[in-house]
Amino acid sequence: MNKNELNPNASPEAAYGARLRSLREARGWTQEALAGRMDYSSVHISFVENGRKPPTLRFSKGVDVALGLVGTDASFEVEYRKIKHGNLLEGFPEYVKHEGKAAEIRLYEIGIIPGLLQTPEYARVLADYAARRGAITAEQADERVSFLAKRQAALERSRLPTLLVVMDESCVRRQVGGSEVMNAQLDRLVQFAEQPNTVLQIAPYDIGERRTFDLPMNLLTMSDLSVIAYAESQLRGHVERDTAAVLPLLTAYHQLQAEALPQAASVAMINEVRKGTP
Asked: From CA 47, how far away is CA 277, in angstroms rounded?
């Protein structure tokens, strides 16, 4: 039987299937041999390898067991989750589930406007550029924008959460998408600050070493007063619930708020930047 040529660049599912075939063949296994190590038929494995059937979480876990990849960065479970969540960082989908139920949300961001405050146009520019440089597909860019809209909509509920946001000055100084997109985004920030359930502060450049975080930080206070932290590196996100680990982060956030500009001064800076935008 002639083996089908696979194009791993066709889609994330195709890349998954091509990698599965490559690792299977590297071990000298036929599809039947792999099927014997999993609770799936050789036909099912063939369909996944050829992109005719999408992988599932159960299938991916079975592959990891058979290939000895459980718990590794190279696991098919990790690859499946990237496909399912549009290349969202590990841990982020879990965080979002809690975010939609939180009584209080504290955010700190560097370089870009926090997602919950982004206009659709600003979010689209970021997603489209990620697609142009090959970090994600065009379809995943659409998913990112849609996913963000759902996150924002989830906060529009009968009991509004309190949103406390501290942004590094770079968030408002960095031009994204040209003057029209940026002007609308800055207007959105001013409107956000006017809401009764929000506080917006800017951490200016001149606080220097008194900036308590070097990476973005999200802190959620739930209805039972438990606090959940979420932080990201360039490669992955991490949800932390352990009180001993989270409380120092909450203290650091309070210290950052004390060093940041008050809301009125923060809004004044945003308006100054807005006027300086052509």
From this structure: 53
What single-letter amino acid sits at 87?
N
Give how far Cα 177 sits from Cα of 122, 123, 226, Å: 7, 10, 38
Q: For residue 36, what are its two tokens?
A: 């014997």
85: which residues sit within 8 A by CB, 6+ positions away?
92, 93, 147
**Can you give the CATH number for the domain in which 29 is found?**
1.10.260.40
Please indicate, yes or no, whether residues 31 and 60 belong to a single structural domain of this protein.
yes
Q: What is the pLDDT of residues 93-149, one digit of tens each?
A: 788 889 999 999 999 999 999 999 999 999 999 999 999 998 877 878 888 898 899
Side-chain half-sphere CA neighbours of 80 within 13 A: 17
Q: Write out the residue range of the structural domain in which residue 31 sits.
A: 12-84
Write b or e for each residue in 85-94: b if 16 or more Cβ atoms lie within 10 A of its Cβ, otherwise e: bbbbbbbbbe
- The pTM assigned to this predicted structure is 0.70
